[in-house]
Amino acid sequence: MSKVLLTTLNAKYIHLNLAIRILYDLNAAEGNLFWKEFTIKEASHTIAEYCSQYDVVCFSCYIWNITPTILAAEKIKTLNPNCKILLGGPEVSYDWHDKIALDCVDYIITGEGEIPFASFLKNYPNVSLVPNLVRKQNEEILYQQQPVDFDVKNLGNRNPYQYDNIEELNNKVCYIETSRGCPYKCEFCLASLDNKVRYLPIDTIKDNLLYLMQHGKVIKFLDRTFNIKKDFTIDIFQFILDNHRPENVFQFEITADIVHPDIIKFIDEKVPKGLFRFEIGIQTVNQKSNLEVGRKQNFEKTSGIINQLNHKIEMHLDLIVGLPLEYWDDLKYSFESVFKLFPPELQLGFLKFLKGTPVRDKHEQYGYEFDINPPYQIIKSNFLSAAELHHVTLLENALEIYWNKKRAEHTLKYITATYSIFDFLLGLGRQFDAAYKSNHYTLNNIYTTLTKYVAERFAEDIILQQLIAIDFSLQHKVKPSSFFYSEIAKDEKFNIITALKLNHHKYRYTALAIDFDWEIFVQTQAIQPSKSILLFEYNGAQLPRLIVTACETTVEDVSV
After folding, report:
1. Helix 328-339 vs helix 421-435: angle between axes, to the nearest 10 degrees?
2. Rg for the chain (alpha carbons), in Å?
3. What is the 3-class SS of 466-520, one letter each residue?
4. Among 80, 285, 366, 376, which one is most buried in terms of CB atoms within 10 A?
5. Looking at residue 204, which CATH number applies to its domain?
6. Containing domain of residue 245, as a range?
7. Cβ neighbours, 10 Å, residue 136
8. Which CATH number is 116's domain given?
C-alpha cells in the first residue's frame, strides 16, 4: 500500500493548518496516511528529505506558501523521482494550468477537498474518476470536473485536533470553523465564490471548542462572518463564558454593521474585557468603491458599533489600498475616518488579485497592473499611480512601527485631533525609510527619527514634544536614558518623591513636566492647559507605573 503524506508550509510556527487535520481525520482508517506540518522559513532541502520517504505527498497551498511549496516539490522529485506530488487548496483551485504544467506536479485537486481526496486515496493509482482532479496522462492534461457538494454535517462527532500533542496546543493559534461560505459577494475575496453558508452540527462545534479551550490558549474562528445568525452567535458566546480558562483568547471575523442589538447587550453585560477580539474588514468608507466591488457597508453604523464595544472588545480593523474608484484623496479620507476609531491594530493591506476572484477577471477594465507572482499585489491602476502606492507602503511601515506596536499611541492620538494623521504618518514613513532601508533598527532609532521629524516640521508644538517623551518613557521596564526629553531638576524630583512617600531606594523614577491635563487628554484627546508633573516608576520587571501629580503635589495614580 502506498504511503501518503498530508502536509503544508505554515506562515509561522505558531500557526496550525485545519485543512490537513480534517482530511487526515476523515481518512485515517484507510491506513498508510500520515500528516506533518512545516513552515515557510524551513529549508527546502530539509522539507524534501522528510517528504521524499513517501509515495505521494499532498500539499495544502495558499498565496503565502505556494512559492516555497513548489521549491520543496522540485527537491522531492530530485531525491525521489517516483514520488508523486498532489496540490490542493485555494491557491491552485483556480487558474491551475501553470502549476500542473510543472514537472514537479503530478496532480491538483480543485475546490473543497474532502470528497475528491477520499476518492483519490481509496482508488490510487487508478484516479481517472476522482472528481475535480487535474492530472497528466501521456503529455495530456485531464480535468475530471464535477459538481461536488460536501455536507459539512459529515464532520459531526469528529475532532480534527485529537491527533495533536495536547501540550503543544497551548503555544499555537488553534483554528476552528463553525460554518463554511459567506453571504457577501466582495469581488476581491475568494469567499465570495461560495455564497451558501453551511453550519457544522452544533454539538460537534461545542465539543471541539471545549477541547481547544481546555488544551489551547488562542482560538481563532475561521468563519468569514461569524455574526450572521444572532441566536447562534449568542449561544457560542455563552458557551465560551461557561467553559473558558482565564488564559483563553478568542478571535472572530465579524461584519460590524449587522451586529444585532441583542449581541451588543450580551457583550456589554456579560463578556469580560479582553476575552474577545473582533477582526472587522472595513476596507474603505468610499461608497462608490464599495458598490463597484459588490460590497454593502454602512460606515456610520459600523463606527457606532465599534465605539459601543471597544471598551470590552479588542478591535482589529482592515483597510484595502487600491480598490476601484478610490483615488488618493479618497484613500486619505478612508484612512483618517477609520484611524479616528483608534483600533488597537489597523492593517493597511494592498489589493491582491487572487486567482478566481472577479476583480482579477476585470483588471483591465480599471487599468490595473499587478505582480504576476504571489501574492499578486497591485502595482498601479487608473486611480493610483505606482509612485502613490509606493508612498502608501512608507505610510504603512510607519503605521506598523508607531501605532500597531504601541510605540507612539498618545502622540498619534494627539496628531489625529490636531493635524492630518495621514500626512503625518506619510512624512514620518518617508523619513524613516531614508534613515533605515532595512529592518535593522533599535528602539532608540525609532524615537530618534520621530523626534527629528517633529523638530523639523512641528518645532513650535511643545505639547507634541512632551507626548513623544511620555510615549518613550512608557516603553521601558528600566529607567531609560534622558536623551529624548528634559527631566525636572534632580532636587525638585527628589522632593516630590519624598513628599509622596515613594521608595526611591527600590525603584527608579523619571519626572517630566507637562503643560496639559493628562487625565483629560487620556479620556478625550483634548488639550486643557494645566501644569503637572508625571512620575514614571520603574521596577525592572514590568512597564512603568505612571503617577500624576499637580505642582502642589496632589497625587493620583494612573495605571498604564
Report:
1. 100
2. 27
3. HHHHHHHHCCCCCCCCCCCCCCCCHHHHHHHHHHCCCCCCCCEEEEEEEEECHHH
4. 285
5. 3.20.20.70
6. 152-378
7. 14
8. 3.40.50.2300
Decide: 189 and 234 in contact? Cβ < 8 Å: no
Does the bond joining 116 to the residue before it have cis omega, within 30 degrees of 0?
Answer: no
Question: Is 418 domain-assigned?
Answer: yes
Q: What residues in the chain have per-residue pLDDT under 50?
A: 553-560
Q: Do 369 and 452 sit in the same domain of this protein?
A: no
**How far apart (Å, rounded) are the C-alpha atoms in residues 316 and 155?**
30
Q: What angle do CA 436, 438, 439 make, to 5 degrees?
A: 100
**What is the pTM (predicted TM-score) of this model?**
0.93
- The whole-number pLDDT of residue 551 equals 60
Residue 189 has which C-alpha cell? 475575496
Q: How does pLDDT run across 130-159, given as a tens digit for each residue?
A: 999 999 998 899 999 998 889 999 999 999
Point out the domain boundary residue: 96, 118, 143: 143
> Residue 549's beta-bridge partner residues?
533, 555
The answer as to whether 308 is a domain residue is yes
- Read off the C-alpha cell for 100: 500542473
User: Identity (one letter) of the amino acid at 271?
Assistant: V
